[in-house]
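Exercise: predict the fold of this chain.
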Amino acid sequence: MRWLLFALVTVLLYVSAPQAIASASGTPMQFCNRSSAPVNIAVGYHSSGPNDTPNSNVLTGPFVSIGWWGIAAGACHSFDNPFSARYMFWYGFTPLNASPKLAWTANGIDFFCVANYLGTTAHAFTYEDENASQAACQSRANQDGANIWESVRKVDLIVNPLVNFDGT
């Protein structure tokens, strides 16, 4: 009897393991501002494409970028992962009146379009078509002028969904 129970548990664990891994990709990105200044954050992710399977976690649909969220020094914010993508991306900046000014660089491989934040305020935005290319991004104006094509940081949500931003 014990042998049968052990075999049943083993089979159930084996069958459910791939589903557990796939569901981990739906985890939201957690951003914690460990710096001494507030930051404004934009996030991005791929949406589902027409050929993506229900269990696919690397999506091929249009790229979406959304912003801005103000995150105080020492605060954390959870960003939804609405399409259960494996990867999310982020870009941030310190508001014009913040001190110290934080500067950080991304790897220059991944980019997305953000609303121009160099004016007096950073206006909320949700972009999809603007992420098709740098030209598409910059051809569309918002309240503060042309949008900006930014190099962003990539987060593998299966490996580690937590971003501890320290200003670098």
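Check your answer against the key: The first helix runs from residue 2 to 24.
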